[in-house]
Design goal:
There is one protein chain. 62% of the residues lie in helices and 7% in strands. By secondary structure, the chain is an alpha+beta fold. It has a domain of 94 residues: 2-Layer Sandwich (Alpha-Beta Plaits). Strand 7 and strand 8 form a beta hairpin. Helix 12 packs across helix 22 and helix 18 runs antiparallel to helix 22.
């Protein structure tokens, strides 16, 4: 299948790139350019949760609760008549200046209310409610933002801007800065790495082409999705991160294999076609299955009800799929046109035939790990488990101003306001009562008086004659929402009365409950689906089991690291964030991404081992061969992904730091300890058991290699290579086949586990 596609790409090499690029550019013009206007700050809530129902009832009956949209906090000599008069004049003028945006203003400076002034008399505030709802709220804020920042008072009085919408704007701006930084800084550093890896401008440009096209296409697809579904603004950063990183990884893998195939062939058109077809059969198949497995892992996010997770899933899957399509469709066509010009415009002299593969570090490391397999397994697995231990202290919370850096002006203003006016915090817990008469409401209100963990008793804020009431209260400790919500849920509700616990604390609790309820099912789904795909790809039932266990070890270590840093606060001052609970939906996202990427590198590595095995190599030879040929590629791919993630690690938004630092530590562990040491050691211990599978699995696996070198042809290549060894420089692609009587410096007499050369030839010929 893949071999035939490679031949098709060669025959239509001038048409395929034009068609694909034209489609992506058309998508960008029609939809991609409009993405910014279609993204939402919403989507964190569970549509079927009580907190969502509470918000809907309150909004339908009373309208949106806009009291905490914008806070103008004045500090200093607020009792000075000049300060009072000037603050009142400028704040009141906002309503006259922006009647379409501002709904109401509750100001201490207009009507001095002691509750709007601090106990020490040094601070007071005005609360501005905006008219719009949903995304219009943010647009209204941005319309008045400059006027808010222009408020100036006489000497001795300072003005700060806080509020829920001001925080949302700061978070949104942080996301936009992240994307701009990744596209500028990330691409530059990635280009430098690719130039170093390939040594030539043309070869280095190929993965960048895949990356740029994938981002344009995936963001256009996201914009199209935003027309029919709520898409959270956070998803844009995640898609840019995954799309750029994975697309370049796939391009790197394809280019490396094409150059390797060229090294074994001549310069005729037939040779170029064969190189393109074989690259597509091997690397193309690997890329296809890798993208499929990552897509499967990300699709597990669809089990969760939050629109945020669904939008990220759809967008990320589109990014991965596009990266694979462009890599498997466009790159073979470009290879066909370039031929040996893929090495053109070299910036450094490279000789890919200069060294025997046995002399490379990528061969020596797994060889060492196999010689010391038992200590390596115990040591590496033990280290990963030790790094996992901090996960026992993990806690969960919701999005708030603490997700902004301590130096952010809006964050500082909100912290100051929360500390000075705890009863007016913008994230109260609410009770929405429906269908209650006055006596029934009083009964419920009286029960709330026994609830502990509130800064002050809950008070009625809104009511209607038909028995709809809203009560609100703030938490004494922001992290104590679970206990308060549990107590409110336990209230004895009279017959015929509906009671819903709402507000941000309730939404956070429900998100955690959804995590605990659905995460095991997501895990089962991801494991089963990727297991089956790997079984088909590898032709083995044992290798997928090993891969899943490696993924679990890597993810556990990463989550332990994230807990140690972001919850316990290790290095928080240096990294510029405030430690606190992890946001549960983001944690789910991290798990899906890490599982997908871990599977990605496993596929890259083991597929090459399987290829060597199918050419007649024994288990240890296959391990060394596969690692030697892919070790440098996996390392380069991991380094590229780390660079892209590092661009997002500079984000002001803590959520993005979760993902970026999680990726960095996960990739570092995966590309070193796991793939170069642990995997070779475990496979060495398993020996021939690695390749066990029922016959039907073997048949399905073989079907994906049809049209290229068949197993018999590959074995004949092995015989020919052994019978007619080359002298001088040995091509990388043949070095594992050119193993003489002494393999890796050890003869069959020295190592009884090795098959004697004559016996190996007899088996192959037989």
């Amino acid at each position: 299948m893949f071999y035939k596609w490679g031949q098709f790409a060669y025959r239509h090499r001038r048409i395929i790139p034009v068609v694909v690029i034209a489609i992506i550019l058309l998508m960008q013009v029609l939809w991609g350019s409009k993405l910014g206007d279609r993204l939402s700050q919403e989507g964190w809530e569970d549509p079927g949760a009580d907190s969502t129902t509470a918000a809907q009832v309150e909004e339908e009956v009373f309208g949106r609760d806009n009291n905490g949209d914008v806070i103008v906090l004045v500090s200093g000599n607020i009792n000075d008549k000049t300060v009072m008069a000037e603050a009142n004049r400028q704040i009141t003028a906002l309503k006259e200046q922006y009647p379409e945006q501002i709904d109401h203003i509750t100001s201490y400076f207009e009507k001095p209310n002691p509750q709007l002034r601090s106990a020490d008399g040094t601070k007071a505030f005005a609360a501005i409610g905006l008219k719009g709802d949903g995304e219009q709220t943010l647009k209204d804020y941005r319309a008045i933002e400059d006027a808010l920042n222009d408020i100036t008072l006489p000497e001795g009085a300072d003005v700060q801007i806080a509020g829920a919408t001001a925080i949302a704007d700061a978070l949104d701006q942080g996301m936009a800065d992240d994307i701009a930084r990744a596209e500028k800084i990330g691409l530059i550093f990635v280009a430098v790495i690719l130039l170093f890896v390939f040594g030539g401008v043309v070869a280095a440009a190929m993965p960048l082409v895949v990356g740029i096209l994938s981002i344009l296409g995936s963001l256009s697809a996201l914009s199209l999705l935003a027309q029919v579904q709520q898409v959270n603004v956070f998803s844009q950063s995640v898609i840019t991160l995954l799309g750029l990183g994975l697309a370049i990884d796939y391009g790197l893998f394809m280019v490396s294999r094409f150059r390797e195939e060229l090294d074994q062939r001549g310069d005729s058109p037939e040779d170029i076609e064969a190189a393109v077809a074989e690259t597509t059969t091997t690397a193309g198949k690997t890329v296809f299955f890798s993208a499929l497995m990552i897509g499967v892992a990300l699709s597990g996010l669809l089990m969760f009800p939050q629109a945020f997770l669904k939008s990220v899933a759809y967008g990320a899957i589109s990014a991965v799929v596009l990266a694979a399509i462009i890599s498997v469709a466009v790159l073979p066509a470009l290879f066909s046109m370039l031929g040996r010009n893929i090495d053109k415009f070299s910036v450094r002299r490279t000789n890919r035939k200069a060294r025997r593969i046995e002399n490379t570090v990528w061969y020596k490391i797994p060889a060492w790990a196999m010689r010391h397999s038992k200590p390596v397994i115990v040591g590496v697995a033990g280290a990963l488990l030790l790094l996992t231990l901090p996960i026992v202290g993990i806690t969960f919370g919701g999005i708030n101003e603490s997700y902004l850096p301590p130096s952010n002006a809006v964050r500082q203003a909100q912290d100051d306001f929360n500390e000075t006016f705890p009863a007016y915090r913008t994230d109260p817990v609410k009770l929405v009562v429906k269908g209650a008469d006055n006596d029934q409401f009083v009964d419920i209100l009286w029960q709330t008086r026994s609830v502990t963990g509130l800064a002050s008793p809950m008070e009625k804020t809104k009511s209607t004659p038909d028995g709809t009431f809203v009560m609100a209260g703030t938490l004494a400790d922001r992290n104590g929402g679970e206990d308060v919500v549990k107590q409110l849920r336990a209230i004895d509700v009279p017959d015929g009365v509906e009671l819903y616990v709402g507000g941000t604390p309730a939404m956070e609790v429900e998100s955690i409950e959804a995590l605990l309820e659905r995460l095991p099912w997501m895990a089962v789904y991801m494991v089963l689906a990727t297991f089956l795909l790997m079984a088909v790809l590898f032709g083995s039932m044992i290798l997928p089991v090993k891969a899943v266990l490696m993924n679990i070890l890597g993810i556990g270590a990463t989550l332990g690291f994230l807990t140690l840093v972001f919850v316990d606060g290790l290095g928080a001052g240096v990294l510029g964030f405030t430690p606190g609970p992890l946001m549960s939906p983001v944690l789910v996202l991290i798990i899906a991404i890490l599982y997908g990427l871990s599977t990605d590198y496993e596929v890259f590595l083991v597929s090459r081992m399987v290829e060597a095995r199918n050419k007649g190599a024994d288990t240890d030879q296959a391990i060394k061969y596969g690692t030697a040929h892919t070790g440098s590629i996996i390392t380069a791919a991991a380094l590229i992904m780390i660079v892209v993630a590092a661009a997002f690690a500079m984000s002001e938004i803590v959520m993005m730091k979760y993902i970026s630092y999680g990726l960095i530590i996960s990739l570092a562990l995966d590309a070193t300890l796991i793939r170069l040491l642990l995997v070779p050691a475990i496979m060495h211990e398993l020996r021939e058991d690695n390749w066990w599978a029922p016959r039907w699995v073997k048949r399905v696996a073989d079907s994906f290699g049809e049209g290229g070198d068949t197993k018999k042809q590959q074995q004949q290549q092995l015989i020919d290579a052994q019978s007619h060894p080359r002298t001088g420089d040995i091509p990388v692609g043949e070095t594992v086949l050119a193993s003489q009587h002494a393999r890796s410096g050890v003869s069959a007499d020295e190592d009884t586990q090795l098959i004697p050369f004559d016996e190996l030839m007899r088996r192959l010929n037989g």
